[in-house]
Design goal:
The complex is a heterodimer of chains A (about 450) and B (about 425). Chain A has about 450 residues and is mainly β. Chain A contains five helices and 25 strands. The longest helix of chain A is centred in the first third of the chain and has 26 residues, at about 5-30. Chain A starts with a helix and ends with a strand. The two termini of chain B are about 15 Å apart. The chains are: A mainly beta (about 450), B mainly beta (about 425).
């Protein structure tokens, strides 16, 4: 029997075998069962997630000479006394544009002059008492200083003696209807005469500001307990009437002019508070010097800074592999805030230069890949006051910082986002890691790998 | 001849493909030790409950005892491939009735055997030594908090042996052999920590790479008891051997790699002294009755873990075979054979003071083509392993082993006869 004769036969048999194998394979397939057994035998100690909350951040309060307050769209006026932050006094400066010229009837007569203010809904302090605000005329025009581009909380321009008008009442911030402040009739008559004669000072804005430098709204005289916020859509309205041919009441509006030149002067007197150690000579005070607290009130130049000098202690743990997540909870000290002195609703954490200039706020990447600025998600526990905190995801920041091997002074500045930054007086007193009541808390989760 | 080679290639290739896809049988106990130690030999003795320490065959590679290679037919060259399908049902307190079965199919063994000269037979091949395959889930606490995450565990891998066995006929009645095996393989355990509010998915892959030479020595004594009866005695012995164990790990967090293939330690895993004894009686060269006893001294190695330890393992098996032979030209040819066997196995695992037991029966049959060089062997095994006591798992399984053997003459030119 020759071999090639066999091979045909062999092929047939092999085909049968292949069929058996294929059928067998298809029949058996591959099916895996998930048998819940063995977890007690698994050596699962190799990789772990470990939470560390002993890496205490260091907190300090930063002092700024001045804060840009122009161009905010908000006018602040008022005063209050805060036992923790001292006396705060806010005045606003702005100028007005003349109305368009028109022809008057010979019978036209001046009636009155009013400044019309509208609350923007914000306030700081106690608005339950009666308080006075007064309007003054500026003695010099508002000007931005040389080599500067803005006006500051410390900027000042002289006023003419004697108020042009004032109003004493209970201001209700939520009432946004017009507040009419009676103004000097002598000024009103002057302006009326200029307008009726179409004199040069009221022909255009520049001439008018040369003549009428602007206004200041200031608290007092008398006691004030709150700083009030007004919209910058302020109007000085001149009322007159015409008798001929029939009696008609008319008015002309001097409207708010040039946002860039409107600013809020915010003065403070911290005598008697724990903040007196801060000043131009000492621009940073660790929380240990201020009773284990740090202070934020950006419009008066106070900001807190957080540093993480013990972060690299993590590297000394033999099992440390990688920071998974880091959460920073900032706790306002109980009793430091109230309905009168509410907390800043939003606080951002800014990376900063060595000179404490804010660089960019910490963001968190949303599901869609969009970076969103973290504003602290303030939770307020009005009932017990215990669970009030701002919380931040500082994972990315700390992952960057832990890699820096030399003496790392990098920190995060706590400050509200604009426009609250320069135009809200909301303040925060936060507890450092040794505060008895409320402590700042850093939770770092890391991957632990057993060596 | 080319056609034969083509077919062998196809088989090997499909086997390799199957092998890649296979190994799906969950074997929860394989988390311990070096996995499930393979007790099957994937050869002709599969139908006799792998009873073959004293078995000698001229046409089949009997890996059970290297001394048997000297019995291989002169000038014959044998290629054998075995595949196994396995079906397992699991029973236990925590086993969900809907998802308690697994099945898979894979090529397990490839070997070649040949008689080199009158007194020397040799074989090379590859087959599994142990396998690990399990999956389950647990919980893991985030240390320092009271939060936990779900942890899934999956183990795969195994140790293979590449062997070169040689059997030498010392006299008319005595043959000795040595099986020089190189054990090599890795056991991989993958831990997947589910993502939590503070972490992405963390995957830890731990790998133990084991390797070393592992020689087994064999002896066979064979004689005629009477005109009708033949008697064989066989013994095998393997000395305690340390397998080098290299532990490495990779950890990934989300998409990023925290640690890549870091070697965490170098250790060793010891395989203990192993002894096997077997006897067989053959009547008229047709009916064979065989018995094997295998013993491994694990206790002395003192491997212990939480709630488990490795204990001495024992295996007793009995097998019988009826062979139908025909007188061929110049020689006797075997056309068919039928086999049956049973075994009882105390494995090396002792969990909660319960030594894991395995018992089962086997049947098998095989035939050799009269027209060509192929032999087919089919064996079925049914067994029960483990217990449901103390929250343990019991496995009821069936295994089908298919062995294909191809024989050809080597160093012979001209006509071929079968």
């Amino acid at each position: 029997m020759r071999f090639y004769i066999i091979s045909r036969n062999f092929c047939r048999k092999m085909r049968i075998l292949y069929c058996i194998l294929a059928a067998f394979y298809l029949l058996s397939g591959c099916k895996k069962a998930y048998i819940q057994f063995g977890d007690q035998f698994v050596d699962n100690g190799y990789t772990n997630i470990v939470l560390v909350d002993t890496l205490t951040p260091v907190v300090s309060t930063i002092f700024r000479d001045s804060v840009i307050t122009s161009n905010s769209g908000i006018m602040l006026a008022g005063m209050y006394k805060d036992s923790m932050f001292g006396i705060i006094r806010a005045k606003t400066f702005f100028n007005l544009a003349p109305p368009a010229l028109r022809d008057f009837s010979l019978s036209a007569r001046y009636d009155s002059l009013r400044l019309i203010l509208k609350s923007n809904g914000t306030y700081y302090g106690d608005t339950s008492t009666v308080q006075t605000i007064s309007i003054y005329q500026l003695a010099e025009p508002i000007q931005i200083g040389e080599s500067q581009s803005s006006l500051y909380n410390t900027s000042d321009f002289p006023i003419q003696a004697g108020a042009l008008g004032s109003i004493t009442r209970r201001f209700i911030p939520s009432d946004t209807s017009s507040i009419l402040v009676p103004m000097s009739d002598a000024l009103g008559q002057d302006l009326f005469n200029l307008l009726s004669q179409k004199s040069d000072p009221v022909k255009d804005i520049t001439s008018f500001i040369n003549y009428f430098k602007g206004l200041q709204i200031a608290p007092g005289p008398g006691i004030s307990n709150a700083v009030l916020g007004f919209r910058d859509s302020v109007v000085m309205r001149l009322y007159y009437h015409e008798a001929n041919p029939s009696p008609v009441n008319e008015y002309l509006d001097f409207i708010f002019n040039n946002q860039a030149l409107q600013f809020n002067q915010i003065q403070y007197d911290r005598t008697g508070t724990g903040l007196t150690i801060l000043g131009p000579a000492n621009r940073e005070a660790e929380s240990t010097l201020t009773n284990n607290m740090a202070f934020v009130q950006s419009a008066t130049g106070l900001e807190a800074k957080i540093r993480f000098p013990t972060l690299r202690n993590l590297l000394q743990r033999p099992d440390y592999a990688q920071i998974l997540k880091a959460e920073l909870d900032i706790l306002p000290v109980r009793g430091s805030f109230s309905g009168q002195y509410p907390l800043p609703p939003e606080l951002d954490l800014y990376s900063t230069s060595l000179l404490n200039d804010p660089l960019s706020p910490l963001t968190i990447t949303q599901a869609g890949g969009l970076a969103q600025v973290q504003n602290g998600n303030l939770q307020v526990d009005w009932l017990y006051g215990q669970n009030t905190f701002y919380s931040y995801d500082v994972t990315t920041f700390l992952q960057q910082q832990i890699a820096i091997s030399d003496n790392n002074k990098n920190g995060l500045l706590i400050q509200p986002p604009a426009p609250a930054f320069e135009s809200a007086l909301n303040r925060l007193v936060l507890g450092d890691s040794r505060n008895i009541k409320d402590r700042i808390m850093l939770k770092v989760y890391y991957i632990s790998i057993q060596p | 001849m080319k056609l034969f080679r083509a077919h062998v290639l196809i088989l090997v290739f499909s086997g390799a493909q199957l092998g890649v896809r296979a190994q799906n049988n969950s074997s929860p106990y394989s988390i311990l030790g070096i996995g499930d130690i393979e007790e099957s030999q994937f050869n002709r003795t599969a139908g006799m409950a792998n009873t073959g320490i004293s078995y000698r065959s001229s046409n089949y590679v009997i890996h059970n005892n290297p001394a048997s290679y000297s019995e291989l037919q002169e000038q014959l060259f044998i290629v054998e491939a075995s595949a196994r399908g396995k079906f397992v049902s699991y029973y236990g307190n925590d086993i969900n009735g809907l998802n308690n079965t697994t099945r898979d199919f894979s090529i397990e063994r490839l070997s070649m055997g040949m008689r080199i000269n009158k007194w020397w037979g040799s074989s090379v091949g590859i087959m599994p030594f142990s396998t690990a395959n399990y999956s389950f889930s647990g919980r893991k606490t985030i240390q320092g908090s009271n939060v936990y995450t779900i942890a899934d565990y999956e183990g795969t891998g195994g140790v293979n042996q590449f062997y070169w066995g040689n059997g030498f006929k010392l006299s008319k009645h005595i043959s000795i052999g040595i099986n020089a095996a190189y054990l090599s393989g890795s056991l991989t355990q993958k831990e997947t920590l589910a993502g939590t509010s503070v972490s992405d998915m963390i995957v830890t892959t731990k790998n133990i790479y084991l390797r070393n030479f592992y020689p087994t020595y064999g002896l066979q004594y064979f004689t005629k008891l009477s005109k009708k009866w033949d008697f064989n005695f066989g013994a095998t012995y393997a000395r305690k051997q340390d397998l080098q164990a290299e532990y490495s790990a990779t950890v990934t967090n989300g998409g990023t790699t925290t640690i890549k293939d870091e070697i965490t330690k170098n250790d060793f895993f010891t395989i203990p002294n192993s002894t096997g004894l077997g006897i067989s009686f053959t009547r008229n060269k047709k009916l064979t009755l065989a018995a094997d006893y295998r013993y491994q001294a694990w206790s002395a190695l003192d491997y212990k873990g939480f709630n488990y330890s490795l204990q001495n393992s024992e295996r007793l098996s009995l097998g019988m075979e009826i062979s139908r032979k025909q007188q061929g030209w110049q020689t006797v040819l075997e056309s068919m054979y039928y086999q049956a066997g049973l075994f009882y196995d105390k494995s090396y695992l002792d969990i909660y003071d319960q030594q894991l037991r395995d018992a089962g029966i086997t049947v098998g049959m095989g035939f050799n083509s009269k027209r060509n060089a192929l032999g087919y062997h089919l064996a079925f095994e049914y067994g029960i392993r483990g217990t449901q006591n103390k929250g343990l798992i019991q496995e009821k399984y069936g295994k089908i082993t298919v062995t294909l053997s191809y024989k050809d003459f080597w160093l012979t030119k001209g006509r071929k006869y079968f």
